[in-house]
Each structure stands twice: as C-alpha cells, then as structure tokens.
Amino acid sequence: MKFAIPLVEGKLTAHFGHCKEFAVIDVEDKQIRNGFMTWAQL
C-alpha cells in the first residue's frame, strides 16, 4: 500500500491540497519498503 504525505519545506502539513511536495511511502507487511519525495507540477 502506498501513502502520500503532504509536506511544506520538508515538514508534515495538514493542508494536502495546497502542497507542492509529497513523501510517497510504500508499506508492505507493516514495514516501510520504499520511500521517495515528489513535487507537484503547478
């Protein structure tokens, strides 16, 4: 399962719709398998 975590200047934020960057985390068997950062194209 993948989760997208909204970030502002590399820190967690509650405003998902206003973010320009996200951390995407891939979780399998209750363990983090992979993660990367991506930026929104506005």
How many DSSP-defined strands?
Answer: 4
Backbone structural class: mainly beta
Distance from N terminus to C terminus (CA atoms, Å) equals 26 Å
Tell the overall outline: elongated
Mean pLDDT score: 90
The main sheet orders its strands as 2-1-3-4
Enumerate the spans where pLDDT stays under 50 for 5 or more consecutive residues. none
* Major sheet description: 4 strands, antiparallel
Question: How many alpha or pi helices?
Answer: 0
Oligomer: single chain
Strand portion:
over 45%
N-to-C SSE string, H for helix and E for strand: EEEE
- Estimate percent helicity: under 10%
> What gyration radius follows from the Cα positions, in whole Å?
11 Å
Describe the protein.
This protein is mainly β. It is built from no helices and four strands. A four-stranded antiparallel β-sheet has the order 2-1-3-4, with no helix packed on it. It is elongated. 0% of the residues are buried. The model has no long low-confidence stretch (mean pLDDT 90).
